[in-house]
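Fold this sequence, please.
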Amino acid sequence: MSDSAPDPLPTSLPSDLAADLAADLERRILDAIRRGASMEDIADLRPSRAGGPEEAIRALKDGNARFFSGHASRPEADANQRRAQIMGQTPFAAVLACSDSRVPVEIVFDQGLGDLFVVRVAGNVVGESGLGTLEYATRHLDVHLIVVMGHEGCGAVSSALLPDEILAEEPEHLRRLIARIQPSVRDLPPIRDKKARLREAVLNNVRYQVAYLREQSVIRDAEARGQLRVIGAFYEIGSGAVDFLTEEEDLRP
């Protein structure tokens, strides 16, 4: 077909320009369908959202700013754009987040279908299946960013602070999950304010999981060659804002 793929979109655009570009993409896809284009051709029309780790971080920061300020673009794909993704996916970031129903990752970052590769498990802990999933995203989807995101009021992290005799009453597999969090909160300094103490525990767990991921060979090698970065984040349910942990000092366990 004669239409060529558009240049990658900037990660931050005025709302009217973003709307114009989205409308133009919709027109291109609709025209291609009318001409009988293949699904491969239609998929090629979808622009890349980020060209590297720093652009990926900026895209998530800008999307979250739209969300918590009440100006989310809600970029849910329509039928034609969904068809453009049939042949494959090109997410620019992977997010390891908690399964908490109050933490809908794509909505929090104001991203659409196909933008994020999301792994969700209570306490955003790295287990065997989660690690394999993130290795798949790194090796086969060429994501530019892995974000480990904890959140305000995390029940799994709160459970990791409980005495062992109370945890002994929980089911076996839940105890094993909580055990993956406990090392990160074992030496938590005394903090009298319960909310502040839990926030610090969640952040420590985020740092612990980030450090573990960065030790794994597939992810470590991808970071070394500049393909991706592994960072942390903390989502405040009340405000809707995400605090990003991007500097080495912030990420040190």
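The chain has 13 helices and five strands. The mean pLDDT is 86.
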